[in-house]
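Regression check, LV4SOB2L case 119:
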Amino acid sequence: MDIVYIRDLQIQTIIGIYDWEREVRQTVSVDLEMAADIRRAAETDNIEYALNYKAVSKRIIAHVENRSALLVESLAEEIAALVRDEFNVPWLRLRLSKPGALRGARDVGLIIERGEKPA
Ligand SMILES: Nc1nc2c(c(=O)[nH]1)N=C([C@H](O)[C@@H](O)CO)CN2
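Current build output:
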């Protein structure tokens, strides 16, 4: 199994459970690992056969910027579902973090894995 990844994709969005968090955009950071078979793209040197991380990033940004979730859990599940459905990704691991959201911690958030890992 090969992995195409995106690290520390920073997006501004409304997220959080507190009143002040409903009024100001905060930064969330996305790390994403996606199962892929990169061999055909490598053999042909053709983006048509690649899992295009630029296209995935643009889709995630569009979704997150237009959302105003309360919980990081909701946003993480939505991102995982759209990446799997729209880019035909069989398995992914997603870390969604809120830098600076908790005093004393660099960031907080969660890590989820969805789908089945190909052999
Ligand atoms: N498991 C979670 N815990 C908390 C969340 C969350 O989204 N998931 N959110 C908050 C607040 O919005 C926090 O980020 C503000 O500092 C608290 N706990």
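Comparison notes: The chain has three helices and four strands. Strands lie at 2-13, 26-36, 91-99, 107-115. No diff flagged against the previous build.
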